[in-house]
Design brief:
433 residues, alpha+beta, Heat Shock Protein 90, 2 domains, 5-stranded mixed sheet, elongated
């Protein structure tokens, strides 16, 4: 009973520490569900812990954290695995350091039934763990590190796993043999060194994640700036052409007046029609109030014009103002890439892009309709369209779109209309996130 009380105290503090640490990730479920899951897990681990099997306790603890971070939060499995093993290693090392210090007071602590000693161990070993979790989350928020995505997290597991093995070896040695006080303190010092190594590893890991994220964003920014440059050049060209047209309007009016005096109604109609069809009047480079969205859409519209493919765009005001530049590029560039691939070489091809913000709701809708020669789905069990592209790595476009959709608690629906040979992409996003 004394051991159970000690474990309950330990896991109560640990549960609070885990809750704080989980703030590194974006939640998948409501707080109530996550708290219930955390309580059940901590209670279960408390009862199992009374058996005194250290390796089993550590393994189950890491497994629970992996489940909690991976299911309760939107953390990739390899990110959840790294953090679960890291926290287990840190918690175990802190316990070992505390154990070495308590051995100086109560050499037979592991067999002790004194509730006071057990409670002292529970508090002194878990409070530093709690403070450490709080410090890690606070530091990460202050320096504004990006969300972890790289699979390199898997490579960092070697150090925390080695730390856990070392902790088990140290603990088994202290339990089996009578050792001098000097050796006990040396063990404590070695454990502290390993603990600091784990913390340095976490710092390096988070730094590299942030650097990789910044590198990707830098490449995207360069691409966006190139597109903006092309957009401004086209805008300048359009303005120049329209100034020329305005300058020539007097001549056009005189020509129409001359035709009217001759009674050439048909020629007047043809002349006016040619003016309407003039590129100087037709070219429109602004399809929304978002400059970057104009840049992205314009690039694909120019490709469609070059291939003689009708491209209709209807983007309503303030429909996408909640997205940042990175998300706009990820969404529209990848979606229109897929649409362009689908309409290539198809007779009667067209692309329609409609973006709207539903008034009175928290939702914005992106709807792309494009012709498609054949069903792009590989089979009935999958809803991911296949691609005819041969380049390695293709398919990341839709994954990039899915990340934006998930971030804004949205939904993406893809379906093929076999009777009309038309493909629909419908994305609903929460514009208040």
């Amino acid at each position: 009973m004394v051991k159970l009380i000690g474990f309950l105290t330990s896991y109560l503090i640990e549960g609070f520490a885990i809750w704080i640490y989980a703030d590194l990730f974006r939640a998948r479920f409501k707080p109530g569900i996550r708290i219930l899951c955390l309580i059940i897990g901590c209670l279960t681990l408390s009862f199992i812990g009374t058996a005194g099997v250290v390796w089993l306790n550590a393994s189950l603890y890491a497994a629970f954290l992996f489940f909690f971070f991976g299911v309760g939060y939107k953390a990739k499995w390899y990110v959840a695995l790294f953090h679960s093993v890291f926290l287990t290693a840190v918690m175990s090392l802190i316990e070992l350091v505390t154990l070495v210090m308590i051995y100086g007071i109560a050499p037979n602590f592991l067999e002790s039934e004194d509730i006071l000693i057990n409670e002292i161990f529970a508090v002194t070993s878990k409070i530093p763990f709690l403070l450490l979790c709080f410090a890690i989350v606070s530091i990460r928020k202050i320096i504004k590190l990006k969300e972890e995505t790289a699979k390199s997290a898997f490579l960092y597991l070697l150090v925390p796993v080695s730390s856990m093995v070392s902790m088990l070896v140290f603990l088994d040695y202290l339990d089996r043999y009578e050792v001098s006080a000097r050796l006990k303190w040396a063990t404590g010092f070695a454990t502290l060194s390993i603990l600091f190594s784990d913390l340095i590893l976490l710092g390096v890991y988070l730094y590299n994640q942030n650097r990789n994220s910044e590198y990707i964003r830098l490449k995207l920014t360069l691409a966006q700036e190139k597109s903006r440059k092309e957009y401004y050049e086209l805008l300048q060209e359009q303005n120049e052409n329209q100034r020329i047209l305005v300058h020539d309007i007097k001549d056009h009016l005189q020509s129409i007046e001359a035709l009217n005096a001759q009674g050439e109604r048909a020629k007047i109609d043809e002349y006016i029609k040619s003016l309407y069809e003039a590129a100087n009047l037709k070219s429109v480079v602004r399809v929304s109030e978002n400059e970057l969205l104009n840049v992205v859409v314009l690039r694909y519209r120019k490709e469609c014009e070059a291939q003689g493919i009708p491209f209709h765009v209807d983007i309503r005001r303030s429909s996408m103002d909640f997205l940042d530049d990175y998300e706009i590029t990820s969404l529209f560039a990848n979606l229109l890439d897929n649409a362009m691939e689908a309409v290539h070489g198809v007779e009667g091809a067209f692309i329609d892009l409609n973006v709207d913000r539903k008034e009175g709701t928290a939702f914005s809708v992106i709807h792309i309709i494009n012709t498609c020669a054949e069903d792009p789905f590989e089979g009935e069990k999958t809803r991911i369209p296949f691609s005819r592209k041969k380049e390695p790595g293709h398919g990341y476009g839709l994954k990039s779109v899915e990340k934006v959709v998930q971030k804004h608690d949205g939904n993406m629906n893809l379906y093929f209309d076999g009777t009309k040979h038309v493909f629909h992409t419908i994305i609903i996003l929460n514009n208040r996130i």
